[in-house]
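Final report, section 2: Outcomes. Of the targets proposed, Alpha-galactosidase is the one most frequently requested by collaborating groups, and we therefore present its record in full.
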Amino acid sequence: MTEPVHDGRYGLHAQTEACYRLFDELKREFPGPEIESCASGGGRTDAGMRQHADRIWASDSNDPRDRVDIQRYTELIVPPEMIGAHIGPSPAHSTWRATDLSYRAAMSLEGCSGFEWNILECSDDELAQITSFVTLVKELRGILHTGSVHHADFKDPALRARGVVADDGSRGIWVVATVTNLRDALTERLRPAGVCDDRVYRVRMREEIGESRWGWNTPAWMRDARTEDGFEVGGRLLKNIGLQIPPLWPMQAIVLDIREAR
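The predicted structure is given below as tokens.
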């Protein structure tokens, strides 16, 4: 099973077909559980495996710093709802890098959210944060798994922003994150794709992922975005002027919920 040669013959093709048969037989016998194919070894992430597995695991690394780019490029060929995006412990087993739970949760929103973590080891605070996050996932799953994916472009190599926008432009969920130190103290602006010029939108920061941290030059709109009702802004202004991104510390993220107000 682990060698490309079997019985003196090239065996990888036969092994892959056997893997497909195994998955199909398991799903016939046990139709309830979903199968998530691993990215390493055997039948990997390809068009063939996608016909037999419910989801794929994009990488053996569950470090959110790695995953932010791994998931970005995997979803060029695999729908995000088919990419397992799991919250793991800190430090990550693959890199031993420590990250905030809010950062791990934000990266998990960019695929099919799940956990690769023994939650029996979690503190009471972590369990409360996980509970809040799961409630958020259930609320947003409908748009996250059906909308169109957009990535914003920035000059600063530390910034990432990914949005999932409803086809009718009525709502978008954006994850804005840093992967290292910001280059400039005055941060760039997010101009969310998919908004309509003639509509009014309500912008709200979803803090169910947990506490995120940023520096001192906090944009004024953040104060209102952190309230329960958020604030209203025109689509034309969002598209052309945008929202100045807060000066996030390295490996921090925020989640913005932009939905039609009226």
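The chain has two domains: 11-144, 148-260.
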